[in-house]
Amino acid sequence: MNQFIRKAGILYGMTMLLSSMVYAQDLPFCISLQTNEFYTPPVEKDFQLNKPYVPYVKVFLPEKEKATGRAVVICPGGGYGMVAFGHEGTRWAGFYNDLGIAAIVVKYRLPHGDYKIPVSDAETAMQIVKDSADVWNINRDDVGIMGFSAGGHLASTIATHTDSVLRPNFQILFYPVITMDKSYTHLGSHDSFLGKDASKEMEDLFSNEKQVTASTPPAFITLAADDKVVPPTNGINYFQALIKNNIYATLHVYPIGNHGWGYRRSYRFNQAILDELTLWLENIDKKKK
């Protein structure tokens, strides 16, 4: 059962009306998460701390001839204090579109201690993709979620907390924050998401390694062993919880890289990660065989 209240403004008919207009628009295009209308954001900048903005998704559809029907909703990181929309968001569009996969990047609002805010935005993004599936040439049963750092916490929250209607079909997590346990979380993400004085009950609820069940979607997890920002035990413990519950999952730990490399060709293991991710995506449909 969904533990969150979905945004009341999501209307199936409105979303379908908008989506039917897509191919008359320039691609990519943006949709406001508050109005479900086409939206033109101001110039997108990484690393803008705590500046208010309208939440939206930026939609990158592959060429119709290449489209596989798969989509990935991308949640960039930023410690829940900003959204790294470029190297952990829009720069991934080309990679996915070349594979015939739609990429939908979420500029979610910052929580300032109220976890419901980014969670609501991420759920709204999932809803928009599913409601627009017919027009965007997307399979509603092949919509995954991807997250980086704190965006990995948001993505894994959607993967472990939402009901079956919005639950993603797979999850891709890069150097993710997973836990809210203060002994090994990223404290900045903890304080921004739950507040500094969060109860043990709330910390446990959003320690997503504790929320894995047999219904949790398959996962691709990658991180660097020398990460000094988010302890690698976040991703490792999540992987162990997935395996314990017989979830199809893979974990790739690279010896160096620290944190936050996103989509950077200069990162030594960038191509290796892209190759592994491509292979995993090609084989995910065989997970039950």
From TrEMBL:
Entry-linked Pfam families: Abhydrolase_3
Domain Alpha/beta hydrolase fold-3 residue range list: 77-259
Taxon lineage: Bacteria, Pseudomonadati, Bacteroidota, Bacteroidia, Marinilabiliales
Record keywords: Hydrolase, Signal
Organism: Plebeiibacterium marinum
Family matches, as SUPFAM superfamilies: alpha/beta-Hydrolases
Domain of life: Bacteria
Any one Gene Ontology molecular-function term assigned to this protein's record: hydrolase activity
Protein name: Alpha/beta hydrolase
InterPro entries hit by this protein: AB_hydrolase_3, AB_hydrolase_fold, GDXG_lipolytic_enzyme
Signal peptide feature range: 1-24
